[in-house]
Amino acid sequence: MDSKAATLLAEPRLGGASFRAWDGRRWVEAASSDFDGHSLTVVVDSLVDAVSRSPARGPPPGTPSTVRGEWSTRPRRPMSAMGPEELVSRARTALGWAKSSEAIQEAQVRIDWDEDERLYLNTMGARCSQTVHRTRFSVVPLAIEGGRAQFDFFSRGGVGGEEILDSLTEENVAATARRSKELLSAKEPPSGAMAVILDPGVAGFFAHESFGHGTEADQFLRDRSYLQPLLGQQVGPEFLTIVDDGSFPGGWGSIYCDDEGHPGQKSLLVEKGRFVGALHDTETAAAFHVKPTGNTRRSDFLSRAFVRMTNTYVEPGDRTLEELVEEAHEGVLLERGTSGIEDPLGGQMQLKVKMGRRIENGRLTDLVSSMALSGRVLDFLKAIRGVARRSRLEMEPGYCGKGHGDYIPAGSGGAYLLSQAIVGRA
Amino acid sequence: MSPTRGVPETAQRVADRLKAKPPWEVYAEHSRRFEVHVNGKTVELTRGPIALEGYGLRVLRFREGKTAVGFQASTDLSEKGVHAALADAERITRYSEFPAARVELPSSSAPPAAAPAVVDKELWEHPVEAVDHYVSTLLSCFEGRRQVTPSFGSVRATLTETSIVNSNGLRVAYPQTTVEFEVAVKAFGGPEGPPPGEYWVNDSGRRLDPASLPAAVDRWCQYAEDVRRAVPPPTGELAVVLPTEVLSGILPTSLGFKVSGSARLRKIAVSPGQRVAAEQVTVVDDGCYDWSLPSSPYDDEGSPQRSRTLVSAGVVQDLVYDSMYGAAFGVPTTSSAVRSAFGGTLAWRRFSRAPTPGATTLAVSPGDGGTDRELIEAAGDGVWVQQLGWAVPDPISSSFGGEIRIGYRIRNGKLAEPVRGGTIGGVVVGAPDAPSMLRGIQALGSTSQLADGFASPTMLVRPLSVAGSSA
């Protein structure tokens, strides 16, 4: 809602089933949103027909899951129990906090939650039923002056229920509103190659775009990963560890099992600076003689399964932000990540942020407006000079696409991180 | 031709089960999708039919001078499912308010004056064969090439019958085809050569056009090879030449929002009479642009599509409204109801979104800048950007920026070495009298192209901020 309009949207009750069959050479799939017998028969017949036309025979690669189980996140305070009155009331209160700040003419508040029910069955006997509850909110106060508009945003989300909203406080919203106003007079960011410090959320984007997409092992099979030849090698400093963890407690991208029935789990990608592991589905695990890592994910029954991330993060280190700023001496702090994009073959990455601070003479100085960071991942890794400590690692909520769409909930996180890159206006 | 021949269209079937007080509206889609995914030069996965039938139900309730809107979407077309969706929508109206005393839904189902071409007949009638033929043509374009190959790609074709019925007597239905295409082209090899390079193509439209592939693959292979020897651009405020493929990721999101009734309601829209662009810039919102993804015979509330000038000689002429936002300002809909996601038009699943006002195909009129070569000559010294990373602006501040995935340095009026890395950025629509990308347009090419639902000539913009590694 904002002050002009309030809308409570019930997201579609989308339901359906996807079927996959191995035709001796490749997978063939069909799906339907209609559960009636005739529709499902049409879908299955199309697969039978496709398989019968294939000249090849033989089993699919890899060892299919035989996992059986039933899981649910069962939040102690489920959002479904809150009711629309309370939901709207919480949003109105947050809207009031945002608009009570000077120079904030408008604000947008969004609170959303969903229940994702998935049942996976295969011919080897796997039967994985899981229900995952995800809750998220965002507050965007708009500061408008002289025909210009600016905003900061405050957003949190995770697997769970109403407790996710506990950080939707007046103090947090007011701080965001103040920053929106400050952004109206923010300076242009510096341009060129320089020392950069990523805030914890942006460090999470870095983990996701660099060692997340680059270690999805279907890209190895396609010979489309610049990282593949480096497996086992030292690629960064000893204090750098990057992880993907589908079992991260409360993580936005956490799952009980993936969409091939393999359990969600923690996978070390970079350990003490050494590139040690990749993310696998059944097929890539077989090709590389390892176990599946629980990273096969579908956006929904309408979308294909890929090797995908869950929660990807940089493990906190032992430095402080103040130490990193002093060491950077001249450069820029990048804050509030808005998007990132990978380059699995070329090894570039792009990270975009809403704002930042100049670093001058070893101190944080002027607020600067939105920026894009560009750089070669391997150069960026080599230039990392420190990672800050953090008392409690949190995953930030986001959606990750692979190729053309196929968005899935993916968490990312980290701690302040100092390196070197090209930065420009965005 | 219709997948539901002999069966009433989906929206009417839902409406027949609907026991709702007017005003109400049902927007429905019945889609079949067919996909082929390739890994290298082999087919990795085929998918289809992927059948999806669903509807979005909107009810409007008027009270105390305001409008309450309830919306629910569902794939359950049974009587019980429709009843549940209606109950949700009615319940939601209790917590909704919109600043319009009354909203009139469209009643006319007259066809548009010039219905756009949005159905690839061959694809509609023979989807599996058409997609297979397109993919085999694509792969054949790589035969005989040394050190260049597709590494990854997909073609996703969707055949949709859209239907809209409302309590004001409107009933329309129309077929449309959509195609989403991507391919990553990899250049590699050579003795002790540089690392592999990749050019990643993403496009969408209304038809498969295999005849266009040979020439396109030639270009993509050249870009992939050039990636291998590219260097970062210089840093500075430079002349930049941007082709349609790049502009399609920048202009529509920002300008489309700034001219919308939604932005006007939040007091962040541009105003009629305001100069937002250089004098040679004219922009038309054309819902009937042939083969463009945002085109359709009717907008997403059922009003016939049309073409309207939004910016003439750099000055804003008009804004776009749907029924609701039009009612908030006492003006009629401009046939601009769009069910979309941030960053682009939805190829399918539009039924799951409530309509909001938005532009369709923004078409920038060609200028007198001549050919691309002449624009490069006019730039003198600068950068040609062939592809950016995700550069989509945030629509509120209108700031945009992204990494240069491949471009070319312009020296002495000619394309020189390829550039890659570094960033380019700016503001698309600036505050009055503030510099912006649209105000900085120095020349427009003389021919227009369509890319991803946006039509324009190549543009020369001076200056834009470029950040690289050297001065």
Write the layout of secondary structure elements.
The complex is a heterodimer of chains A (426) and B (471).
Chain A: E1 10-13, E2 17-22, E3 27-32, H1 37-53, E4 68-72, H2 83-99, E5 104-121, E6 127-145, E7 148-151, E8 154-159, H3 170-184, E9 192-198, H4 200-212, H5 217-221, E10 242-245, E11 266-271, E12 274-275, H6 282-287, E13 296-298, E14 305-307, E15 311-314, H7 321-328, E16 331-341, E17 348-360, E18 363-368, E19 371-376, H8 377-382, E20 386-387, E21 396-400, E22 408-413, E23 417-425
Parallel strand pairs in A: 4-6, 9-16, 15-22
Antiparallel strand pairs in A: 2-3, 5-6, 6-7, 6-8, 9-23, 10-11, 10-15, 11-12, 13-14, 16-17, 17-18, 17-19, 19-23, 20-23, 21-22
Chain B: H1 10-16, E1 24-39, E2 42-63, E3 66-74, H2 79-93, H3 121-125, H4 127-140, E4 148-166, E5 171-187, E6 197-205, H5 213-228, E7 236-242, H6 244-247, H7 251-258, H8 261-265, E8 283-286, E9 307-312, E10 315-316, H9 323-328, E11 337-338, E12 340-341, E13 344-345, E14 356-357, E15 361-364, H10 372-379, E16 382-388, E17 399-411, E18 414-419, E19 423-427, E20 441-444, E21 449-451, E22 454-456, E23 459-467
Parallel strand pairs in B: 7-16, 15-22
Antiparallel strand pairs in B: 1-2, 1-4, 2-3, 4-5, 5-6, 7-23, 8-9, 8-15, 9-10, 11-14, 12-13, 16-17, 17-18, 17-19, 19-23, 20-23, 21-22
